[in-house]
Amino acid sequence: MIQTAQDMKTYKDRIRAALGNQFLRKALDNFASSYRVSRAKAFEGIDLDTLKEQIAESKDQALTQLESLFVQFKTRAEAAGAIVHLAATAQQANEIIAKIGRDNGVKTIVKSKSMTAEETHLNDHLEAEGFKVTETDLGEWIIQLRHEGPSHMVMPAIHLSRQQVGTLFGDVTKTPVDLEDIDLMVKVARKELRPAFLAADMGISGTNMAIAETGTLGLISNEGNARLTTTLPRVHVALVGLEKLVPDITAALRIIKVLPKNATGQALTSYVTWITGAVECAASSTGKKILHIVFLDNGRLDLAKDPVFSEALRCIRCGACSNVCPVYGKVGGHTLGHVYIGAIGLILTYFYHGKDNARAIVRNCLNCQACKSVCPVNIDLPYLIKKVYANILRDEGTRPVKNTVLSTVMKNRGLFHSLLKVASNLQKPLVQKDAGVLRHLPFIFGKAHDFRTLPALAEKSFRDQWPKIRPHIKNPAYRVALFGGCVVDFVSPEQAISLVRLLSAHNVQMEYPMAQSCCGLPAMMMAEEETAADVAIQNLEALNSQSHDYILVLCASCGSHLKEGYSKLLAKKPEMKEKLRILHDKLIDFSSFMVNILKVVPESFLQNQTQVAYHSPCHLCRGLGVTREPRALLQTAGLDYTPCKDEDVCCGFGGSYSLEFPEISSEILSQKLDHVENTGADVLVTDCPGCVLQLRGGMDKRNSRIKVRHIAEVVADNLKNP
Amino acid sequence: MTHNKLIDCMKEKAGLVQAVVSTVSSMEDVLRYAVDLTLQRNSKTIVVPGLDPQSLQELEALCSDAGLTVLQPPFRAHQSQIDTALTGADWAIAETGTLVLDSGSEDLRIATMLSETHIAWIPASRILPDATALSAYLVEKMKTPPGYMSFITGASRTADIERVLAIGVHGPQELHILVMEENPS
Ligand code: SF4
Ligand code: SF4
After folding, report:
1. Cis omega before residue A233 (within 30°)?
2. Which of A277, A302, A453, A601 would be a feasible disulfide site paired with A437, CB 3.0-4.6 Å?
3. Which member of B106, B146, B153 has the closest CB to residue A282?
4. Going by CA atoms, what residue is nearest to atom 8 of ligand 2?
5. pTM of this prediction?
6. Where in chain A are the domains?
7. A689 touches chain B (CB under 8 A)
8. Cβ within 8 Å, pair B145-A276
9. Where are the domains of chain B?
10. Chain B CB contacts of A279 below 8 Å
């Protein structure tokens, strides 16, 4: 039985246990690395973006007409000899299937892999009714024997080692199994499962696509068990989530073109099977297969009508959102999901398995956007995860104290900024002289937070320094406004000061609109959407001047939130539309401005060829889609850029995430730092002050010689005429 | 793609997924291939769903010389004894190295699922560039039910234990594709 933590305390115990599992970490890590390579290879020469859009669009289209597609499917399939059912709930689906079994005198059942059957806990139900059920997908069989749930939607037993599987098989067959020989284990499964196929009265399968036009079921599999399941027994029951309905073969073929490639980097699975109606079957007394197709609603019809969450139903269960998730990579699927796993699992659990099971896991997201960027149907997973969290807070009517405090403070910029000033004074006894870091962590942080040093608040914020340092450029080439963000303004003003130097040297007039506030992303991360919308409006007003050509950001997270997040947050406020458009058009990250607008040249910089490694911030490379410019800028600015493994994998910061889940944050960080140290670089450069904070804190804890700096700083330091 | 390129692509892609691809020029070659391979594997039996009567006669002659048995339908009666299945394929998809078999016949399904080795011949003229080129055919088939259409790409495989690729978990352990070129150049 799957038992998912329902409170944070239990959840954190589980996380610690999962982090202690060395095999799991290594297995998932290897998988993540090889997956990236094979996926890229599989999609070579394919215009993936267009394909993704087409699938998403046709899925959305289908979702608005599920009921009529169902009717069409039912008509066609029944004309072809099938019997089609619609189950409103999971319980009802299970009962329908058990009744089909009883009515047909079924005793033994073979099953091929179906996440939908996992969703309804079908096996438990059938076994309680006295049927003997055998899972035949190798991975599913293994976890069935272990009485576990899947830890990945495509590779259910990825958490187990060959030794664990070998031992299990030895126990089951009462014959010792060579614990190293995987080929042999596979043969053991072949031999053990074959009699189950031959003897079974009923086969249960899932379905990947249900084609309404012809009443056809489309199934994909690698092992061939789905073919045996649907061929040998006299009864075949297919359990199908309503969202699997597609209008026609064209839509189905498009899914097939993407699904195996995105799932495992395979061009196509070994088998794709298209079943239309009741085919020949000598085992049945009529000579025809007894085919029942059970569609499952279980909340899908409502979900399809939800303006925000309906896109979750586009999911084709490729599992890729787990493959690339840095949190999944550390803790595995039993800790990051309930039945459905990974990013999509954090969302679907709430709808299919209730808020109790979603409550804790839904908080375990860094908002790194890796899942979103790999999803073949363009689901905005991180956004929906936060939305689910907000729903749970709303359902439970209790907000964590820190949420209330954060909201109250953030909505009032004056209060927020004076509190920061007070804090800067209060922390003085804790600050290590010259280093700008906290010598001791305040007592509210436990030991788990000790994986990095935390920076002190700056003695004087950037906004307080600004009136004195504001340059006056005569006949500037451009006028730009800086959106600083909290970290730059109050922790790392030196990053903005570097920018001032660079811009002045390039004849650009910079402004710092004083009414700007926090971008609001921290409020989003804590699911305080109303507060986030409030500060978004404050910032839109503050930045809404006709006099700047561009709005610059030094913080990728602020930038991507301003650019993408605001339009989602303020979608229902038409009066903001024009301001949003201007913000969207003028906003630009530091590197893109230097490279694409100023077109800086090597002659302006010392060419000292300091060796630098680069960390690509999540919200820059995925959020804003900027990848080329920072690397180009480093080279122009006379630095020797050395590529590093997994440059675009999250550093584990995630704002408040690193405070909520310090153990996971620390593991992700540590791996990142290992990769950087392996490059031999002297300096690690990145373009997000949050990442700087995390990476620098980690390097500092390691006493590493590698300095961590914002890209604006290293570039400014190499200016020839500062 | 030119016709020759299609054939090459089919061979290459099928090879990538551990299918063994050869070129043949006649039905006689096909039958001999099946007999030889069955002998090499120390196997005893062959099933040939849907083979034309003349070829079947030839095969039976070859088999009786070689000491092999051609099992007679219905194959459900032999479900644990099928060593080699020899079948035709209706189409092939070059892009992925895939065979397309109209598997409405239960005997064909049992042969291609329960055999240890599956050998399929495909006329070179029936190799298509991609699945989309097959849409019209598929729809037509689906509109005249009942039907069971199979795409087969390589042998049965799994990576469920430590993601190590292992061949032959449930379906045939080997897939051999014989591309029949009417005018081999
Ligand atoms: S945003 Fe990142 S951490 Fe969150 S679910 Fe997606 S991949 Fe995982
Ligand atoms: S949400 Fe997207 S990436 Fe995740 S399993 Fe579904 S389709 Fe795949």
Report:
1. no
2. A453
3. B106
4. A318
5. 0.94
6. 1-34+319-398, 43-301, 428-597, 602-717
7. no
8. yes
9. 3-180
10. 104, 106, 146-148
